[in-house]
Amino acid sequence: MTTADHPAHPPVALDNLPRHIAFIADGNRRWASRHGLTVEDGYEAGTAAVHRALAQCRALGVQVASVFIVSERNFDRAPAHIQALVKVTCKLVRQAAADADGPLRVIGQLDRAPLPLRDAIREAEHQTRARTGMSVNLGIGYDGRADIAQAARAAADLSSVPEQTAHDIDRHLSTAGQPDPELVVRTSGERRLSGFLLWQSTDATLHFDDRMWPEWNDSALLDALIIHAAQTRAFGR
User: Fold this and answer.
1) What is the dihedral angle through the alpha carbons of 95, 92, 101, 148, rounded to the nearest 10 degrees?
2) Which residues in 31-42 are b (16+ Cβ under 10 Å) and which e?
3) Would residue 209 show up in a list of annotated catalytic residues for this protein?
4) pLDDT of 37-47, one tens digit each?
5) pTM of the model
6) Per annotation, catalytic residue among 26, 41, 180, 223
7) Cα distances (angstroms) measured from residue 129 to each of 132, 136, 150, 174, 224
8) Is 28 a catalytic residue?
9) Which of 9, 29, 94, 190 is the most exposed place for a label (fewest CB within 10 A)?
């Protein structure tokens, strides 16, 4: 049975709700291909799913929601695909900022991002920085190994102690100040993290859903929460 075939399930106990849920939003282009649509149509449908997921997390009382939108390697795609991706991502960032009741943070390397996208990100972060509700992280140009490397360099530069601790690294990651993800969801049936929040996801429940990201809905998140609630987190003890 795939996750898409799960029968009706009972409500999730909110006392076991993850403080931080991370989504690897995969499958937009394959969904578009299956439906005879364009790549841009796939990105647009994926954007709608991002807003649905964030809205449900906000309604449930999640403290932090992270969504992997664009990896650093995605900027190597064909020019036409990049143009469509950037156009849709600019709209996504602006709408996510308008909807947010807490701060929006974009995590990733933006050196290769076109100027309109960088401008949209700068405005969204400025617009939401004083809000106190659910924090939203959007992974754009994100690479997990680069995140760890820059944190290690920063910790070393600012410390007189020769050896750095895990806490020193934590304080300089792109998600500094936030709880680590307790649940990481990847859609489209792929069983890998693709570098998203590698350091931060050490103790997270990993949930791989066969749905394509544009198909993500409230029922899909409840499936993931039920699986997370059944896990025993001993933290090595």
Assistant:
1) -160
2) bbeeeeeebbbb
3) no
4) 999 999 999 99
5) 0.90
6) 26
7) 8, 11, 23, 15, 29
8) no
9) 9
